[in-house]
Amino acid sequence: MNKYLQLNSCLRYYFQDFVDFSELESSEGSAAHILLAINVIVENEPNPRVQSLNLNIMDKDMNALRRKNGIHERESHIAVDYPVMSKSREEYGNEHIDFCFENLKVDRSWSSDPHDINIYTDISFGLPAIKSNYMESTNRIGKINEKLEKSDTELDAMVNQMQSSMATAYSRLRDMNEDTYSKQTIFYILILCSYFGTCIFEILWLRRVLRLRKLA
């Protein structure tokens, strides 16, 4: 098992660094449980045709508590219930958990080249820490919702202002169009009147010329 830990990227956490022993002493029964909330973020996704990213979570005796094979999503949420069989302070000092990431090569061909994977883990030990993180996340979400609501209000005000401006501009443009249409109509009527007047004048002038020359 030590060879397994050496060949893979493993992180070991001792519970006494994160959960006070008094929390276990106050629990009922001869055994206790520590709940862990794990958030795994994969920065660059593995190539499933070349490599397989696995997560193996083990207790101090190398028993698998949780195993997740073929991780391909960017973010994973995992919950682990770690049993503490003895409430002895000395034995509690040895209680630990191992997180091992396996970057296994699936394609055995010589041309395959699996790349390194950057992984970030966020672990909450115990219900108080999980509750605290949940409250912080809820507060952050609440603040984000407030900002979104404020942005929605500002956006609605901008839309209403734009609609009002467009209505005013539309009314002004409509009046301008109507005024332009009226002026153009009068102008066209004057042109037609001038044209017909010129035609009538030319006809009358031609008739007079023909009469004077006794051609009509």
UniProtKB/TrEMBL annotation:
Listed A to Z, the keywords are: Membrane, Transmembrane, Transmembrane helix
User: Could you tell me which residue ranges the GOLD domain spans?
Assistant: 93-210
Pfam families associated with the record:
EMP24_GP25L (PF01105)
Report the transmembrane regions from the record. 186-206
InterPro entries according to UniProt: GOLD_dom
This one is known as DEBR0S1_30438g1_1
